[in-house]
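User: Please predict structures.

Assistant: First:
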Amino acid sequence: MKKSYCIAILMLIIISLASNACAISETTGATAEDGQNADQIAANQAATDQVASPSTVALSLYVLERKGNGTSLSGVTVTAYDASGKIVKGITSSNEPMVIDGQPGTWQFTIAKEGYKTISLAYDVTNTSTAIAAIERIDQSPEPVALTIHVHDGDLNGTPLADVQVSGQDFGGNDFEGMTNSNGAVVIDGVPGIWQFTFSKESYETIRLSYNVTETENTGAYLLKATDSQKNLTSPQSNQ
């Protein structure tokens, strides 16, 4: 009987130790309050330690001309949608950025200005920051081209004519003027397109013509000598 009683006491001690060991393993590194277990306490602690995200952020936006001198453009219409879909619309100034407030996340932008290509883009705005967008001109002038003209006497196989006055306008409406050299050649620079020419030289007929200049190239022209009848019209009659 005494032996059985001792065994029962020993079993109670073992059960008690096992129960205490479980309680320690579950609460190590945390203090249980109001019946919370370690997982609940860890979750609460993580929530407390987490830094709250800002409810709104501000983006300072500069709009520049692509291939420009780096100066921000004024008069640019900017339409922005923040992450919540709120719309903000404004016009840029050349002195200060356009400041847009909204909910952080991915924002959508449309940027437009007369004479420039309209662009649409998405940009992640997660905190208050500064950004730059660039737009490109539509009406950029084409690169100038050079036309070398060889002027001949009588036909294109004739003797090169020096001192021929060549004048006119390029496609952009710019005036030009030049004189053929000793080889009968003159080089004219201008905006590609249809050019207007006038060729004149003393004792030769003045000619006017149009020519479509699309690239830097060489071309030829010729002048005809004035007829005797034309000379008589411009020369005084001699007294017999």
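Second:
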Amino acid sequence: MNWMKYRWLYLLLSGSLIIFGIFSMVNWGFNIGVDFTGGSRLEYRLPDGSVKTFKGASVDQVQKEGIKANLEKEVGGTVTEIKFENVGPAVGPETIKKTIYALLISAIAILLWIAHQFKSIKFGVSATLATIHDILVVIGSFSILGHFFGAELDFLFVTAVLTILSFSVHDTIVVFDRIREMRKGRMGDPSEFADRAISETMVRSINNSFTIIFMLLALILLGGDTIKWFAVALLVGTVSGTYSSPFVAVSILVTWDELSRRIKSGKNTK
């Protein structure tokens, strides 16, 4: 199948998603959790088995007992404390700083490692841009989900983003490795090698992704409020990573190759 014939459409779709996410971030911002802002988080299990969560300014032991007593009066039964944590106001900014550092270090390490393994900076930059695409899609999605459904950015979200980095680059390496094998000792159109590589790895990639998606859907539906948005972040990242590996990373690589050839051809004709 001629996948690369429509690479402009793939890049247009990705660009539109990212722009919409940036629009959401600028206009609506994020629903920041206490992990970043500081404050208290309390979780109680109600008599019917559901979980009630309270988040806000820091509370002491007396205030905590008052919240529990009011909740028991409201539901007409005994509630069980599941979780109570206080996060100091100084911890939030430090966590944000370390998160940014972790993402930057991961992206640079991915770029350098892939460039070294494939003996070309083109592969490293293309893979890195695809992972940045996935991060922006997930972050933008959580701005939208936070505005409409109350999704929060917390420690688990950071964990999900770092996990998505590894998943996305794994699929990209599989496709890139197939392209490299096809190119060895051969001359030809970069689009043809890319089309064959995508066709040969597509079924494996989709099957692998579906096993993860089914598990994440089960966590979202049955896992409870504590890990619900963590699973949603992983789900969005899995879908985005499955898409970006063949259609973003490879499209960037092929476009870069073709531009390089045209520039060289232009220089040779002078």
